[in-house]
């Protein structure tokens, strides 16, 4: 019900959403190409494109340090960096290009699908629990994450894992999906009554495009920030 306009194919008994797979692959290719371009010919004294790369690294490292202030935060700098870049590009992809054949959308923002955002959120959830186990051992992790500071909080702690997962995924999905829907509505309005609707629709479309870029950047920042907070909750000892 979430993937209207997408093509589903079955392979080895599994169902794959072609639009999600293609859009995710395109996003990954763009991210790899941009990072390779930014990181070519690195110098001790950064200039030009190297400044952009180092600014992004410093920005995501700042997110990590704000959530995980001790030395362990350095272990998650690369994760935060890649998450931010991937989600930012994924959020903007549907603003740049939407490839539709017939009634099937093959390229759009991957994060406009709940399956993509749920996958990203689940990945963060798994990493956070693995990090907790590595830090405290399995028994220490269970005690620290679910029975501290009081054992009576165990049901709430279990429920919190589910709510963190759902809210992390659906917050990102809801914002990007709503933005793309509104862009489609403005485009349809532009075509509805010729010049009368086309003229006001053009500036409206441009304004919303710019606002969507801002929202996409904010949502990437929020997702990475919350991901680091959830990881910190598993690797820092409860009082």
From TrEMBL:
<keyword id="KW-0472">Membrane</keyword>
<comment type="similarity">
    <text>Belongs to the ATPase A chain family.</text>
</comment>
<dbReference type="InterPro" id="IPR023011">
    <property type="entry name" value="ATP_synth_F0_asu_AS"/>
</dbReference>
<dbReference type="GO" id="GO:0005886">
    <property type="term" value="C:plasma membrane"/>
</dbReference>
<comment type="function">
    <text>Key component of the proton channel; it plays a direct role in the translocation of protons across the membrane.</text>
</comment>
<keyword id="KW-0375">Hydrogen ion transport</keyword>
<feature type="transmembrane region" description="Helical">
    <location>
        <begin position="12"/>
        <end position="38"/>
    </location>
</feature>
<feature type="transmembrane region" description="Helical">
    <location>
        <begin position="113"/>
        <end position="132"/>
    </location>
</feature>
<dbReference type="InterPro" id="IPR000568">
    <property type="entry name" value="ATP_synth_F0_asu"/>
</dbReference>
<keyword id="KW-1133">Transmembrane helix</keyword>
<keyword id="KW-0813">Transport</keyword>
<feature type="transmembrane region" description="Helical">
    <location>
        <begin position="207"/>
        <end position="231"/>
    </location>
</feature>
<dbReference type="InterPro" id="IPR035908">
    <property type="entry name" value="F0_ATP_A_sf"/>
</dbReference>
<dbReference type="Pfam" id="PF00119">
    <property type="entry name" value="ATP-synt_A"/>
</dbReference>
<dbReference type="GO" id="GO:0046933">
    <property type="term" value="F:proton-transporting ATP synthase activity, rotational mechanism"/>
</dbReference>
<keyword id="KW-0138">CF(0)</keyword>
<feature type="transmembrane region" description="Helical">
    <location>
        <begin position="76"/>
        <end position="101"/>
    </location>
</feature>
<protein>
    <recommendedName>
        <fullName>ATP synthase subunit a</fullName>
    </recommendedName>
</protein>
<dbReference type="GO" id="GO:0042777">
    <property type="term" value="P:proton motive force-driven plasma membrane ATP synthesis"/>
</dbReference>
<keyword id="KW-0066">ATP synthesis</keyword>
<dbReference type="InterPro" id="IPR045082">
    <property type="entry name" value="ATP_syn_F0_a_bact/chloroplast"/>
</dbReference>
<keyword id="KW-1003">Cell membrane</keyword>
<dbReference type="GO" id="GO:0045259">
    <property type="term" value="C:proton-transporting ATP synthase complex"/>
</dbReference>
<keyword id="KW-0406">Ion transport</keyword>
<keyword id="KW-0812">Transmembrane</keyword>
């Amino acid at each position: 019900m979430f993937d209207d306009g997408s093509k589903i194919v079955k392979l080895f008994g599994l169902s794959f959403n072609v639009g999600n797979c293609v859009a995710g692959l395109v996003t990954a290719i763009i991210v790899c190409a941009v990072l390779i371009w930014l990181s070519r010919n690195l110098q001790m004294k950064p200039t030009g494109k190297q400044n952009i790369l180092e600014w992004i690294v410093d920005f995501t490292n700042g997110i990590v340090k704000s959530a995980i202030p001790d030395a362990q935060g350095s272990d998650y700098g690369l994760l935060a960096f890649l998450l931010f870049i991937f989600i930012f590009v994924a959020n903007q992809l549907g603003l740049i290009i939407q490839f539709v054949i017939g009634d099937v959308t093959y390229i759009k923002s991957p994060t406009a699908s709940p399956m993509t955002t749920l996958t990203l959120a689940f990945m963060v959830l798994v990493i956070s629990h693995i990090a907790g186990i590595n830090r405290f051992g399995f028994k220490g992790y269970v005690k620290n994450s679910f029975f501290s500071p009081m054992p009576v909080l165990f049901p709430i702690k279990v429920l919190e894992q589910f709510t963190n997962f759902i809210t992390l995924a659906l917050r990102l999905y809801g914002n990007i999906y709503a933005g793309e829907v509104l862009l489609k509505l403005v485009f349809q309005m532009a075509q509805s009554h010729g010049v009368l609707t086309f003229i006001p629709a053009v500036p409206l479309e441009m304004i919303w495009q710019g606002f969507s870029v801002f929202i996409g950047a904010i949502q990437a920042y929020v997702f990475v920030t919350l991901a680091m907070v959830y990881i910190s909750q598993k690797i820092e000892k409860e009082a």
